TrEMBL record:
The lineage of its organism: Eukaryota, Viridiplantae, Streptophyta, Embryophyta, Tracheophyta. Residues 220-321 form the Fe2OG dioxygenase domain. Belongs to the iron/ascorbate-dependent oxidoreductase family. GA3OX subfamily. GO terms for biological process: gibberellin biosynthetic process. Keywords: Dioxygenase, Iron, Metal-binding, Oxidoreductase. The keyword Nucleus does not apply. Its EC number is 1.14.11.15. The keyword Chloroplast does not apply. Its cofactor is L-ascorbate. This is gibberellin 3beta-dioxygenase. Gene3D superfamilies: B-lactam Antibiotic, Isopenicillin N Synthase, Chain. It comes from Malus domestica (Apple). Pathway: Plant hormone biosynthesis; gibberellin biosynthesis; Hormone biosynthesis. Pfam families: 2OG-FeII_Oxy, DIOX_N. It comes from the Eukaryota.
């Protein structure tokens, strides 16, 4: 049987069974949440106010969207998209569904805690184990059908729930499960479209990517939905919502509510805020596009900061290939003058590598170490970007 995404961490369990706090009851920042510059692997304070250095916004209905996408991937690794075809109603609905999940009592959420060797469930971000300090956030990871999740995450409650709940509650939960399902379906379609804008701009066509299917529809693709909640924080300048990382995906589509917090690290500039734009979605280049493109489209280092007054919510659709397909630099992009820089690796194997090496994961699959004089500035893991 081919490997499934949900098995990715079976051989790399991570123990994060720390009790999650009730953030709303904390009126000052506990020491365990107070970050200093030394606690992050990357510079934390450099903030950019440059008005002309802002993340590209691409209107997907424009005829030159493909060119703009290629340029954004090469120079930023992140862009926002408008006219993407996801109905505003669905974005509003998924935001409400996310809010209602996070507003459950802590004990209820902890019943759905992600097991150490699992991918799905409630808890701190997986990468938390690489830091001495805790992040000011909580998350739900959903892989596959939300109905199966409901059953798996709250097994004791599942049968009882359908037997005892009143009509209104049942309708409410059914509606939320439906919204998550619909959101996953729409995101998958958009992810496929974005993949072809990215690959197309590199001169790659559907025949070049066998696992994309004959119509390039990425039928066997896998994905995870990550709901992130960042409660208002009494001392935002000393806290970290989600520490700097690149996504272990092909690409990530992120919806953020109207509160800013997402920042990307830009060479020579520092941390640049990706401002929330009503109706727009953020697209990140992940490590697997970095590999497929042989480093031409570098994955983007990003993080989430928090604020004093507003609760922030983000929903990331983490899109990847079928879990057991080998990903390697596309043959059209390699040749005598462009040797392949990365060895073939499956998504599951890469997730395991990330669980083990975190920000050294990409360089650990690199074939030839860059000479210091030819340092690959696109590889965050070999060169510190300051
Ligand atoms: C498919 C994925 C991608 C994961 C692991 C697994 C499920 C959850 C994803 C995230 C979501 C939050 C940031 C991150 C860094 C984390 O800690 O969990 C992501 C990670 C990755 O991109 O590496
Ligand atoms: O909350 C955000 O803006 C970032 C979330 C993120 O980076 C992730 O879920 O991978
Ligand atoms: Fe991310």
């Amino acid at each position: 049987m081919p490997a499934r995404l949900s098995d990715a961490f079976k051989s790399h369990p991570v123990n994060l069974q720390l009790k999650h706090p009730d953030f709303n009851s904390l009126h000052e920042l506990p020491d365990s949440y107070a970050w200093t510059n030394n606690d992050d692997h990357y510079p934390s304070s450099l903030s950019s106010f440059g008005a002309d250095d802002s993340v590209p916004v691409i209107d997907l209905s424009e005829p030159n969207a493909i060119k703009l996408t290629g340029h954004a991937c090469k120079t930023w690794g992140v862009f926002q998209v408008t006219n993407h075809g996801i109905p505003q109603k669905l974005l509003d609905d998924i935001e409400s569904a996310g809010k209602s999940l996070f507003s459950l009592p802590v004990e209820q959420k902890l019943k759905a805690a992600r097991p150490p060797d699992g991918i799905s469930g409630y808890g701190f971000a997986r990468i938390s184990s690489f830091f001495r300090k805790l992040m000011w956030s909580e998350g739900f990871t959903i892989v596959g059908s939300p109905v199966d999740h409901f059953r798996q995450l709250w097994p004791q409650d599942y049968e009882k729930f359908w037997q005892n709940a009143n009509f209104f509650t049942i309708m409410q939960v059914a509606k939320e499960l439906n919204i998550i399902e619909e959101y996953e379906k729409e995101m998958k379609r958009l992810a496929g479209r974005l993949m072809w804008l990215m690959l197309g701009s590199l001169g790659i066509s559907t025949e070049d990517v066998k696992w994309a299917g004959s119509k390039g529809e990425f039928k066997g693709a896998s994905a995870a939905l990550q709901l992130n909640s960042y409660p208002a924080c009494p001392e935002p300048d000393r806290a970290m919502g989600l520490a700097a990382h690149t996504d272990s995906t092909l690409l990530t589509i992120l919806y953020q509510n109207n509160t800013s917090g997402l920042q990307v690290l830009r060479d020579g500039t520092g941390w640049v805020t990706v401002p929330p734009m009503p109706g727009a979605l953020v697209v990140n280049v992940g490590d697997l596009i970095h590999i497929l493109s042989n480093g031409v489209y570098p994955s983007v280092l990003h993080r989430a900061v928090v604020n004093r007054t507003q609760h922030r919510l983000s929903i990331a659709y983490l899109f990847g290939p079928p879990a057991s397909i080998q990903i390697s630099p596309l043959s059209k992009l390699v040749g005598p003058s462009h040797p392949p820089l990365y060895r073939p690796i499956t998504w599951n194997e890469y997730l395991g590598t990330k669980a083990k090496h975190f920000n050294k994961a990409l360089s650990s699959v690199r074939l030839c170490a860059p000479l210091s004089s030819l340092a690959d500035v696109n590889d965050h893991n070999s060169v510190k970007v300051v």
